[in-house]
Structure formats: structure tokens, C-alpha cells
Design a protein that fits this description.
Largest sheet: 9 strands, mixed
Helix content: 40-55%
Strand content: 15-25%
Distance between the termini: 64 Å
Structural class: alpha/beta
CATH architecture of the largest domain: 3-Layer(aba) Sandwich
CATH class of the largest domain: Alpha Beta
Number of helices: 12
Length: 306
């Protein structure tokens, strides 16, 4: 055994000694420590026996430190305070590392993560998951995350980026809008249609100009246009029949299946990075990250084959 360890007093007894010395009372120390007065007295007596020194002068209602007690208190109190502060910091860091924080854009949260939340808790019981959803990109979030999900692959030194699936982009409208706008039934369905745009800094949402350039459509110059900075608002507007919007296939499959939205035209724009996982390069990485990425990729593949 290291020599200095043999000279240490019983550390468990120091709590009672320090508290009683600070409060100058055995009874008040017992209340603060949630112990009986007898238990605190035993701690102090054990410490006195180990040191072979009297630490307190006991009066009827209080205690006062002896010279030996004062020497021990002046050394032990700041050391235990520092130990307590350091232990608290480590515990808080451990709690942060134990929480699996997922940052996701709203569209991915809606169609992918929400249906899987129950399965996540079943697969990793006892782990705390925190989901942060935003219309902005992963890099726009200032907080600490375990993994980020968005529909764009950007090479960056800050993240390790993995593509989980591709997707297709095409225009949709509600049946109500289709019935009232005959132009959407023609090849030049963009003409005279109200175009709904989604524009958000850091968001990879494709533009109408990109779609037209890729698919050979002619972008209309004098259409009525409505711009949204929220995906939820865009989706609400198109389902209410306020115009036509560009969407990712995976995000609206349920809407298409139930007839809430209909696809327009026969061409789609392929989007190679439908969902990308962004894992911060900053160490340490959460222990679930690699397993979660593999599991999420499998969930998407299973959904495609079903």
C-alpha cells in the first residue's frame, strides 16, 4: 500500500466531523446529514480514536473545536469542498454523455423518427433520448448533439457524414386544388399555378428552379408565389389547396397513399442524399452512435422493401 494512504483518517467519518464543526452542533449536523445524533457522534468518536486526539469540546447545547480539531478542519474542509465540486462536475458530464441527443429537420422527424420512438426505447431501455427538431440545418444548432439528421451531404471537418438513403423530389397538390385548376392536368402544369416555396437558411430543400432545370420543365416567370420558412406550414398550405409544392417522396408517402395529396407530372428529380447522419467529430462520441446509425439504416431499408 502506498505509504501516505496508511496515514489517512477514515474518510466516511469526515462528513460528520466537518458538518458538526461548521454548525457547532451535533444535533444540527444530524439534521443536515439526515442521520441520527448517535450516528454523527459515532463518526466523530471513530475519527478521534483513529487520530488519538480529542477534536471537540462538548458543551450542553454545542461543540467547539480543540486545537487539533481546528487544524484538521482547516485542512479537510477546503479539500472536501473541492472534491465535492469536482465530483459534481464529473456527474454532470456523465449525465450529458448518457443522454442521446438527436438533432433532426422537421420533415425527417415527422416521417422517420416519430414512428420509431417506441422501438428506440424498447431496443435501448434505460437510455434517455432527447429529440431536437428544427427547420434549420445541423450546423445552425449551437448545442451539443450525439447525431444530426438532414437531407444534404456536406463534407465538413466538424462531422462524420453517412448517407442513409436516397430520395425523389416532385410536385404535389391536394385533390381540391387539382379539381379547381385545370392546368395541373396538362404537361405544362406549372403555368398559372400558385407555387409554394420553402426557404430556410441552412435547409437543403430543393428549389423550383432546380427542379425545372433537372426535369426539363419551363420555370414560369409570372406565377403567383408563396414563400414559407417552415416545413410544417408548407405542408399545411399544400394540403389545404393553396397551391403546388415540391416535396420529397419519403416525406409524403402516407399523404399520397391516403389521397390527401396527389403527384403531378411524370418526372421526378433524384436526390442522392435523402437522409444523412451527421456525427460530431469531437470526442468522446456517444457509445450508441454507431449502433444507432446501423439500426436506422436498416429501418429505412426494411420500410423500402415492405
Amino acid at each position: 500500500m502506498t505509504e501516505f494512504l496508511r496515514h489517512l483518517p477514515p474518510l466516511s467519518s469526515l462528513r460528520g466531523f466537518i458538518t458538526a464543526a461548521r454548525l457547532e452542533s451535533i444535533s444540527r449536523a444530524s439534521e443536515e446529514l439526515y442521520l441520527s445524533q448517535a450516528a454523527v457522534s459515532r463518526q466523530i468518536r471513530k475519527l478521534e480514536e483513529d487520530l488519538n486526539a480529542k477534536l471537540f469540546i462538548r458543551d450542553r447545547y454545542s461543540v467547539r473545536l480543540t486545537e487539533c480539531g481546528r487544524q484538521l478542519y482547516e485542512i479537510a474542509n477546503p479539500l472536501l469542498l473541492e472534491l465535492a465540486n469536482t465530483s459534481g462536475q464529473i456527474r454532470r458530464q456523465g449525465h450529458i454523455n448518457s443522454v442521446f441527443v438527436i438533432f433532426s429537420d422537421l420533415s425527417i422527424t415527422s416521417w422517420l423518427l416519430m414512428p420509431l420512438m417506441k422501438d428506440m426505447h424498447v431496443k435501448w431501455p434505460g437510455n434517455e433520448f432527447r429529440l431536437i427538431s428544427s427547420d434549420g440545418g445541423v450546423k445552425s444548432y449551437d448545442g451539443t448533439i450525439s447525431i444530426g439528421l438532414q437531407s444534404m451531404h456536406r463534407d465538413t471537418s466538424e462531422f462524420e457524414v453517412t448517407t442513409l438513403c436516397d430520395d425523389d423530389v416532385f410536385p404535389v397538390c391536394s385533390p381540391n386544388y387539382s379539381a379547381n385548376a385545370s392546368s395541373v392536368r396538362t404537361p405544362s402544369f406549372l403555368a398559372d399555378s400558385t407555387l409554394l416555396h420553402h426557404q430556410q437558411i441552412g435547409s437543403p430543400w430543393p428549389s423550383w428552379q432546380e427542379y425545372c432545370s433537372t426535369t426539363g420543365q419551363i420555370y414560369p416567370d409570372q406565377n403567383q408565389e408563396i414563400f414559407f420558412t417552415s416545413y410544417a406550414a408548407l405542408l399545411d398550405a399544400v394540403t389545404r389547396g393553396h397551391g403546388i409544392a415540391l416535396v420529397w417522396r419519403r416525406r409524403v408517402e402516407e399523404y399520397l397513399r391516403t389521397g390527401k395529396l396527389i403527384k403531378l407530372g411524370t418526372t421526378s428529380m433524384h436526390w442522392p442524399h435523402g437522409v444523412c447522419a451527421y456525427v460530431p467529430n469531437k470526442k468522446p462520441r456517444h457509445q450508441l452512435v454507431d449502433e444507432f446509425v446501423t439500426w436506422l439504416h436498416h429501418q429505412i431499408a426494411s420500410s423500402d422493401s415492405s
